């Protein structure tokens, strides 16, 4: 439990912060991959071409905005898309960004 | 006609550019005000607390992303939200950002 990083509650979600998280194409790609995967993914399984430390930063920004939930299973850090909560706070936003084929 | 600034066509709309335009709260406010107005508005009628030159920059960013169309009537520059075109390119995106009460 002590290793679980802090997460905002839905009531704390902030549209400005969510948009600042999603304006970055790498972070948007992480969200899109999680949405498509239908399961929680460990940090190392994402198809993103950035260094490990940069990736860690991106995951942190997404977590702090409320877009993903991070938790540990053994030594693996897993990432879950907080879709239902995000949909409740900002209806349609993730749909608009993830159903669209990008590049 | 010569005074009409260039506008992208729908096929040129780029999600990254649109999000970069919408991540700015002043620009998002302009879009929200246009959406609520149900008529085209001249640049001076918006309730935004920035200098005229800063406002001009924001309108330019919105225009170049395809979010607004700017045209002249006499000496007034009018702004129209390109909602139908934006909805065609990125279904649900403007709905998600304009139906939400901010602050």
Question: What is the rounded Rg of chain A?
Answer: 13 Å
Question: How many E strands of chain A?
Answer: 3
Greatest contact pair?
A: A-B, 18 and 18 residues
Q: How would the global form of chain A be characterised?
A: globular
Helix content of chain A: 40-55%
Could you spell the SSE succession of chain A in H and E letters? HHEHEEHH
Strand order of the largest sheet of chain A: 1-3-2
For the residues shown, what is the average pLDDT of chain A?
Answer: 91
Beta-sheet strand percentage of chain A? 5-15%
Number of helices of chain A: 5
Oligomer kind: homodimer
Low-confidence segments of chain A, ≥5 residues, pLDDT <50?
none
Structural class of chain A: alpha+beta
Largest sheet of chain A: 3 strands, antiparallel
- Could you tell me how far the N terminus lies from the C terminus of chain A, measured between alpha carbons in angstroms? 39 Å
Can you put this structure into words, describing what you see?
The structure is a homodimer of 103-residue chains. Chain A is an alpha+beta fold. The first copy, chain A, is 47% helix and 14% strand. Chain A has helices at 15-22, 25-37, 52-65, 83-89, 93-98; strands at residues 41-42, 68-73, 76-81. In chain A, helix 1 (15-22) runs antiparallel to helix 3 (52-65) and helix 2 (25-37) packs across helix 3 (52-65). The longest helix of chain A is centred in the middle third of the chain and has 14 residues, at 52-65. Chain A is globular and about 35 Å long. The model of chain A has no long low-confidence stretch (mean pLDDT 91). The A-B interface holds A 15-16, 19-20, 22-23, 25, 28, 90-93, 95-97, 99-100, 102 and B 15-16, 19-20, 22-23, 25, 28, 90-93, 95-97, 99-100, 102.
